[in-house]
Structures are given as C-alpha cells and as structure tokens.
Amino acid sequence: MSQIEQQLINGLALGAIYALIAIGYTMVYGVLRFINFAHSDVLMLGAFAAYFLAPLSERVFGPQSITGAICVVVASSALCAGIGMLIELLAYRPLRNRPKLAVLITAIGVSLLIEYTCQHKAVFKAETKPFPRLFPSQDFRFGGLAISSNDIVVLLVTVVLLGILWFVVQRTRIGTAMRAVSFNHQAAALMGININRVISFTFGLGSALAAVAGILYAMKAPGIEPLMGVQPGLRAFIAAVVGGIGNLPGAAIGGVLLGALETFAGGIPGISNYRDGIAFAILILILLFKPAGLLGRVQTEKV
Amino acid sequence: MKTLATIQRVMAVAGGLLLATGCGPGGGGGGNATGGANTPAGGGEIIVGEYASLTGKEATFGVSSHNGTQLAIDELNAAGGVLGKRFKLLTEDDQSKAGESATVVNKLIAREGAVAILGEVASSRSLEAAPICQQAGIPMISPSSTNPKVTETGDCVFRVCFIDPFQGTVMANFALKTLKAKRVAIFTDVKSDYSKGLAKFFKEGFLKGGGEIVSELDFNGGDKDFKGQLTTIKAANPEAVFLPGYYTDAALICIQAKQLGLNVPLFGGDGWESDQLLKIGQEAVEGNYFSTHYSPEAGSENGKRFVAAYQKAYKGELPDAMAALGYDSAMILADAIRRAGGTDPAKLKGALAATKDFDAVTGKITINPQRDATKSAVILQVKEGKFKYVETINP
Q: Which residues of B touch A221 (CB under 8 A)?
C-alpha cells in the first residue's frame, strides 16, 4: 500500500530535522551533563536569521538561487554558532562549578528570555511571518508517491552534516578533546585540554546545527514565529533521550523514530491528536526497560 | 518544553484568578456603582472597553477588528457622540493567548469602569471573557465569534455575526451544490472551539444533504507538519476537504496538501480571511474557497460608504469582514445606548436585545432571542492572489 510508504517518506523528512536538533541537545549533555533548554530558541533564531538574510542574498545572487541559499544557510549557522557560544559564556560558564540544577534552571530562564524578547513589538513581534523561498522547489511523483524536492534536500543535508559531525568528533584534535572532556572533565584538564574552549566549541557546533534545522523546518512549513522552536525542540529532546542522551548516533536514530511515529500516529483517525502523548508514553517505556536509552551506556553512579 | 508552556499557562490562569478574586467584590461593587454613577445625563464620557488579539497568532483579525471599531467610535464622536456624551474606547491586547482575555477584561470592567465590552474575534477567547461580563452585569458584544456557546453564557452576551450552525450549513450546501462534491474529508483544529463547532455543524448539514464524510482527522493549531494526516486524507480520495481553521494553519495545510498531490479544493470558514493566508500560502491557496460575513464587492449603500471611509482612514486598505464587524459592533452599541437613554446595564441589555433591522455595513442585523444576529453569509474564492466574491447565501 503506497500510503505506508508515503508516511515513511513524510516521517523520514520530519525525523531528519528532529535528528539535527537532537544532536545539539545530546552533544551539550555529553560534555556538560545538562540539558540546554535554550537550544530550541537558537533554532528559531536560525530561521529568523535566514528570513532577514534572504532578501540580501536575493539582491546579490538573484531570486531563489542555490548559491544564495547556501550563503544564507552558512551565514545563519555562523551567526547562531556565535549566539550559542555567547549564551554559554554569559549564562552557563559562571555557573560551571555550581550544582547542575542551577545551570538547568538558568537554561530554562535563557529560553524564556529569548522567546519573550523576540515576541516583543520592537524585535520580531509575535505574529507568524511568511518564510521566503530560498531556492526553487518541485514535487516529484512516483506512481502514488509524492516527494517534495525540499524533503530530498532535508535528507541530504542531514546525512552530510551527520557525516561531517562524525568526522569532526572522531578524527580531529578538537573532536578528541570533546570526547575526552565528555569522559572526564578533570582528567581532561590535567592532560592540558582547554576545557572552556572545548565547551564553547561544542555549543557553537550544536547551535550551528540547530540553525540549519530551523531553516529546514521553516522551508517545510514557511510560517515562522518566535515560539516555533518549542514544539520541535520538545520532540527532539525526547528523541535524544530515547536514543540515549549523550550518544550521537542514538540522537539521530531517536530523531528519525520520533518523526516516523508522529507522522504515522497523525495519519490514524481518532488518535491523530495524541501524537505527543504517544511520544511520551514511548519515552516512559524506554526509560523503564532501558534507562540509558536505545544506544546509551549504563553508568554506575560513583558514591 | 511542553511542561514549561503548561507552567506558563497555569501561572497565567492563576494570575487571572488572583486578579478575579482580588477584584471580585470590588468588581461587583463597581458594576453597581457604574450603573448609578453613569446614569445622570450630561457631560462625561462613555467608556467602552475593547479586547482584541492585536499581536500573536491571530493578530491580523484583532487589528482589523480594532481598526473597524476605532473608525466607528471616531465617526460617532465626530457627530457629537450619543446623548451629548462622547465615547472613550479603551483597547487591551490579549496577545492571541489563552488566559489573557480574562485578565484584560477584568481590568477593563473593574479598574477602568467600562459600561460595555466589545470583543473578541476568536470564540475561545470570547468564551473566556463572557462569564466575567455576565457576572459583572456588563453587556458584551462580540463582533465576530461564531461559536454558539458564546452567547449561551448569559443574557449579557451579544454578537453581531451569524453563528456556526448557519455557517456550517452554508458550507455544506456550497460543497454539495456549487462544488458538486459528494465525498468530503474534514480536517479539524481540536485546540479551537470555533473549528470543532464549525466541523460539527458542517458534518450534520452535509450528511443531511446526502453527502459522505470519507475521512475525519485532527490537528493542533500551531502545528507545522500536517503530512501524516494529509496522506491519510489523500488515500481516502475525497472530492474536497473542509478545513475549518485559522489562516496560518490553513495556509500551511494548503501548501503541504499540494506537495502531497492532494489536488482537490480545500474550503473553510471565516477564519481564513486574512492577507496572511495569501502571503504564506501563495499559489498553494489559489482556487480555494471560504465563507465569511461580508465582501466589499457586495455591499449596500451604507456598506459602500463604509468602504470609502475605511480606505480614507487606513491608507487605502480594503476592509475585511473582521473590520466591518468591528465597526458594526460599536455602531449597534451606540444605537442601543441611544434607545436606552443611558448606560444603565439593565436598560442597555434590553435595548441591545430589541435591535431590529439595524442597517449595518454587513447587512441588516436583527438580534434574535438567542442574542445572535440573523444575517446572510458570502462565499469568497482565492483568485490571482486576491479574495473574489462568489455568492451570497441568505438565512
């Protein structure tokens, strides 16, 4: 039945975006052991950065050009990487040696601060804005299946970014340093690793991915507003926990799983409204039977 | 994050409650005092409170409605007001948020001493404020909330628009007769009272007319991905899709429906009427239909005068249905105050209920015993990026 395949395509395209967001949550958790709630707002800022940069790129590269689109995405991610690092520097670094709960509450505070500042009349205002088309899109038909070129772009971008991320984490000096910091802060510091630099880099990288995810999400549903990050952020957070928080492939798998779940549940009459409920029920089940998530390692608490 | 949102909501509601309880006795006293203090004729101002979604998700509705109301108040004051008193319109923004309307309406009644409340467009928010007005005994006129429950709150709550049972029936007949669709899918926003009500009445009318509902699915207002539901709708092979929602969601749904190859007409209610539908939806909304209260293309003499005055006041912008209804709500209030000979709440209530054949810009308005307006609906189609008048349907 083509309906199931169509839902798989829909779910994959949505899940790929969740995966990109989930990786940001999981990377920060990996090095700092706390959930950066402001992550979903960086995603929103990424979409807004593209919203404001698109007319500029249109003037330079002409309307809906691929080069222009790439420039917009790169510039927005760079901007968001900077914002992510700034958030870490101003809000989280001063609390580095305080209880984890203090940082967590601060993260919630930062998230609310960004959301409500952006809703202010002088900033972006609260109403939905039409997101510009960055490049020409087309819908392909294969028998009964419909695939939008946007979906293909989303999948390709996600796969390429995951590849690059894997390379950075596994094959570069800074990646090795990230893994070392995630393994043990103090030991890493004793080995001469500049912890602050590594953490800052992690935030930058995660925020850049969030910006890309934000733009992809805005291409999918071209209406953006300051609270647009809340819902995908929540689902990506579940995805990160389901996959095993702190585990990069786990976050990617969790994201795709959540995306597929959401589309399939959405397509069933009667339960289409319980998508979040189902997502959370699965989260609870996984935490009950596999507390560290699908791919997470079980860590014994040292006393 | 969801929990966060919930916490915020709980806090907002708690805040509203605090305010409500804090002002409860004062508000009641104020209500009585207003009756006494404002009745003596001559001098002073008539304070009218308005709450609207000037920002947020349904901002264009709130702004249009407010522009219409403001124009009416300005025209009334320019003509010397009513009974020798001028109007003072106090407008509060509820930010399109749940919980906020209750807070601002409490403030308008208890602190500002409004003699009547005008608002809201969205039924959910009118339903929030209606019990507060009812309790304080202050008449409330909703310009464009179409859910029947709004005026069922009590004898203080009126509206100047038609209600969803009528709108739902109109759209059911439109689907059967004009679109010639026998198999229709319904896609409802379960977060909105307006959408649920309209879907229910459409379904009743459509089934009665011999149509078949092939699929019924839900979304949550504010969702961004609808492909899961739309894939199922497409598989059910409908001839048209009824989409009773608000413009932002409707535009995104039209876009994703086109991407999935669901090439049948989508049609909705008055919640669609906004420029944002065209700006976000672009060519994806082209050819789709919706029912609404009014079209500048099909107006009476009074309607034409209103269009000219509105364009003069708002830089050539054409008034939409929300603007016209906002204007009518204020004009009907002024008419009732004139007939009641003052702002005494009980007399004002009686005068509003007795409104008959009032020549409003959206057509002749008669307030029926349910305190709803009996009047006709128009159907518009999106054509070349504009709303085009299709037909008028009388009750």
A: 224-225, 252, 255-256
Smallest CA–CA distance from B263 into chain A, residue: A146
CA distance B276 to B282: 9
Indicate the residue of A37, A146, A264 with minimum beta-carbon distance to B261. A146
- Domain holding A191, by residue range, is 2-289
**Side chain identity at A200, as an amino acid letter?**
S
Distance from CA of A14 to the nearest CA of B (A): 8
Percent of chain B scoring above 90 in pLDDT? 65
Predicted confidence at residue A138, as pLDDT, reads: 84
Report how far apart, in Å, the C-alpha atoms of A43 and of each of A18, A81, A198, A226, B64 are. 11, 11, 21, 10, 31
The token duo for A43 is 């995603």
The domain tally of chain A equals: 1
* Higher-pLDDT residue of A97, B381: B381
Contacts A128 to B, Cβ<8 Å? 57, 248, 276, 280
Region(s) of chain B under CATH 3.40.50.2300: 4-162+296-375, 164-292
Query: Which residue intervals of A89-229 are DSSP H helices?
Result: 100-119, 149-171, 173-183, 185-190, 195-220
**B9 to chain A, closest Cα gap in Å:** 13
In CATH terms, the superfamily for domain B4-162+296-375 is Response regulator (3.40.50.2300)
Q: What is the ipTM of this complex?
A: 0.90
> In the structure encoding, which two tokens stand for residue B205, read together?
């009318």
CATH of the domain at A98: 1.10.3470
Which of A4, A7, A10, A37 has the most B C-beta neighbours within 10 Å, making it the best mutation to test the interface with B? A10
Is residue A243 a part of any domain in this protein?
yes
Per-residue pLDDT at A286: 87
> DSSP alpha helices (H): ranges in A221-303?
230-243, 248-266, 275-289
Q: How many angstroms separate the CA atoms of B272 and B294, rounded?
A: 13
Q: How confident is the model at residue B16, as a pLDDT?
A: 44
> What architecture is the B164-292 domain classified under in CATH?
3-Layer(aba) Sandwich (3.40)
CB atoms within 10 A of CB B308: 10
pLDDT band per the 50, 70, 90 thresholds, residue A299: low
Give the per-residue pLDDT at A121: 80
Q: Give a yes or no: residue A240 inside a domain.
A: yes
Mean of the pLDDT values across residues A156-162? 93
- Residue A22 falls inside a structural domain: yes
Question: Nearest Cβ partner of B228 from A130, A262, A276?
Answer: A262
In a domain, A90, yes or no: yes
- Which of the residues A64, A123, A127 would you substitute to probe the B interface, choosing the one with the greatest number of B C-beta atoms within 10 Å? A127
Question: Count of residues for chain B?
Answer: 395
CA A200 to chain centre: 17
For residue B229, give how far its alpha carbon lies from the nearest alpha carbon of chain A (Å): 4
Q: How confident is the model at residue B33 (pLDDT cuts 50, 70, 90)?
A: very low
